[in-house]
Specification:
Elements lengths: L2 H21 L1 H30 L7 H32 L1 H18 L8 H6 L1 H34 L3 H8 L3 H43 L4 H11 L5 H15 L14 H30 L7 H15 L1 H18 L6 H7 L13 H9 L1
Helix pairs in contact: 1-2, 2-3, 2-6, 2-8, 3-9, 8-9, 8-11, 8-13, 9-10, 10-11, 12-13, 13-14
Length: 374
């Protein structure tokens, strides 16, 4: 096959794969979320098992560790949903105060640019654009609640079926060398994704805790709800941290009551207050994201910063919000798989941050073969 024919084949194959992912996004995205949640639980269970063995707890094996991990993650899910519901209810109880403050800010904005007859918040929300926005938001929330239930069902079946994976692998690949190679690739992909997801969870929890304490100290209302949003948004690479730094200041800006220690007179004090909240929250996002996270992440990601941003956009178009959350681990998986073939290795090299898609800590394939033979 000549070069032009190969290029044409690659283009057609890529188009077919992208079309398949896009057309099947309702099923595939939900299942992918379930797989990655399963990997988070597995990584958590491994850590719990290691802690149990270190503490010499009798009869504490992987089964008990998995059970504890599932219970903790499930409790976290339920707690998060309850927290979000309570946050929305809290905003609803003070809806009139928030509306009055937002109307004041809208009038102030119109006055600053020399415009009169500023519309009220109600007028803005009841127009055609506002109605379409809330209809879209309602559909998204409804779909998300259904997807969460389906994800949990998928995770339960993944745990029920994981015992038979080894036997199936032996049946599919009867040759020992081929089976060992497939198992090595699978372990490499699983460990990389597990480490990325686990580190991302720890980093998000650390940023959330520090942001929550800061918001409490600054007197921001509903700080726990805003902190929960920060935790979720930090799973989205690059853009998520930017949005997470903007959300609390926006809520602080429309907060009906500004703490008395904020300098200035109303409504100017609201802008000073929001700017202060933005500086503090952005400080935690920047310092932890640029100094702590790279040290913890190590080579588990090993993606170019430009590739991370492009992957976020591409997976976001294909799978929407789930694709944005999964863009980094999915691209890591692609890089590992593409690195296994000489014909596609160049793509994996382009995706990697250092030109070595297997990571700095990985031995060359020849060294691994010699070690295994010995």
């Amino acid at each position: 096959m000549d070069r032009s024919a190969k290029i044409g084949t690659w283009i057609i194959a890529t188009g077919v794969i992208v079309a398949f992912l896009y057309l099947g996004r309702d099923i595939l995205a939900t299942f992918a979320m379930a797989v990655f949640l399963y990997l988070i639980i597995e990584g958590f269970a491994t850590m719990i098992e290691a802690a149990g063995q270190k503490a010499n707890v009798p009869r504490f094996g992987m089964r008990a560790a998995r059970l504890m991990a599932v219970l903790i993650v499930t409790a976290g899910f339920v707690g998060f949903i309850a927290l979000m519901a309570n946050g929305f209810a809290e905003f609803g109880r003070h809806a009139e105060d928030y509306e009055a403050k937002i109307n004041t800010l809208i009038a102030d904005a119109y006055r600053s640019v020399g415009l009169g007859n500023a519309p009220s918040l109600t007028q803005l929300l009841l127009n055609e654009t506002g109605q379409k926005f809330f209809a879209t938001l309602a559909n998204a929330v409804s779909g998300l609640s259904g997807d969460l239930v389906l994800i949990l069902i998928y995770v339960a079946f993944l745990f029920a079926a994981h015992h038979g994976w080894t036997l199936k692998l032996d049946a599919i690949f009867p040759e020992r060398e081929r089976r060992a190679q497939v198992r090595r690739i699978g372990d490499e992909a699983r460990l990389s994704i597990e480490r990325y997801l686990w580190v991302q969870t720890v980093i998000s929890a650390l940023i959330t805790l520090l942001s929550y304490l800061s918001l409490l100290a600054l007197g921001v209302q509903n700080a726990l709800f805003l902190s929960a949003l920060i935790f979720v948004l930090n799973y989205i690479p690059t853009v998520g941290s930017i949005v997470a730094a903007l959300v609390p200041p926006l809520f602080a800006l429309v907060q009906p009551v500004v703490p008395g220690w904020v300098p200035g007179l109303a409504p100017d004090s609201s802008y000073i207050y929001a700017a202060l909240v933005f500086v503090i929250v952005s400080f935690w996002q920047f310092s932890i994201g640029n100094f702590v996270q790279p040290r913890m992440m190590g080579d588990s990601l090993n993606l170019s910063a430009l590739v991370v941003l492009l992957a976020l956009a591409i997976w976001g178009v294909i799978w929407g919000i789930p694709g944005m959350f999964l863009s980094a681990p999915l691209t890591v998986l692609m890089m590992i798989l593409l690195a296994q073939s000489d014909q596609t290795r160049w793509i994996a090299i382009l995706l990697s941050a250092d030109g070595n898609p297997r990571g700095k800590s990985k031995r060359p394939e020849g060294a691994e073969t010699q070690t295994g033979a010995g």
